[in-house]
Amino acid sequence: MNKQFVWSTRxxxxxxxxxxxQKSCDYISTLLILCxxxxxxxxxxxxxxxxxxxxxxxxxxxxxxxxxxxxxxxDILSPANQQQLDSVINSIAEFEPTKITLEASYKDSxxxxxxxxxxxxxxxxxxxxxxxxxxxxLADQFDHETVYPVDYILRWPYQEVMSWAxxxxxxxxxxxxxxxxxxxxxxxxxxxxxxxxxxxQWLNSKSYxxxxxKLRMKRLELGAGSNFVGAKPISSSYERNLKxxxxxxxYAEPGDRIIAIFGASHGxxxxxxxxxxxxxxxxxxxxxx
Length: 289
Description:
Layout: H1 3-55, E1 57-64, H2 79-92, E2 99-105, H3 109-120, H4 130-141, E3 148-151, H5 158-168, H6 170-193, H7 196-203, H8 206-220, H9 231-251, E4 257-263, H10 267-276, E5 280-283
Parallel strand pairs: 1-4, 1-5, 2-3, 2-4
Helix pairs in contact: 5-6, 9-10
């Protein structure tokens, strides 16, 4: 048999097998590459996401009642309440804050820094205000050099709204009266029978925020289509809290863990702004109470 013929026959006979093997190798190589991508890329993305998350500013909005405006029968300076306050502070301290911001005017920063330094030096006795009872004590516990007043005072048009409602939509006044009475009964129960932790848990709950939201939305109806008087309070609240949040951001540095101690009615707005900002992350207060 012709050798050339034999070689040619074998070559052509084995070519499909060769091509099949080549394609199989290519397929296996591609599969291996895909496996590597599937295994490595998510890990890389997760590591990158974790790094980005670690650089975000963590913000806890701690809503409180104003200690110095509490009913006469409640005294935050009493031994029993001071003991409960110690418990609250120890719980909140697990967040390990790097900065404490306060509901005090940004313009009064020097005044509050001076008071804080005097307190740290043993030359100032804390007042009943939550800015000092919570803010100063938390900051001192973590050896912070200063505290950060971030409030922005803005006129709230309460009387204008109520006067308009009295003349034009008295049904709102009936709603408001019932809303206020129900809240007053519950608040009295908290002051008299709840622990300080339980009181603060309520003020930082979704139920509390929903209760305030209901009032704000009902009030929004006042003057709709004419003078929109009912929109003025919530517009004022948004402006004030936006400026408060801007002051918080002014002091924030990557990786900070900030506590904002404010009256609980600010909670809805400040929480929203923290969640909206790309460089901040909201920390649930109830996780630490």
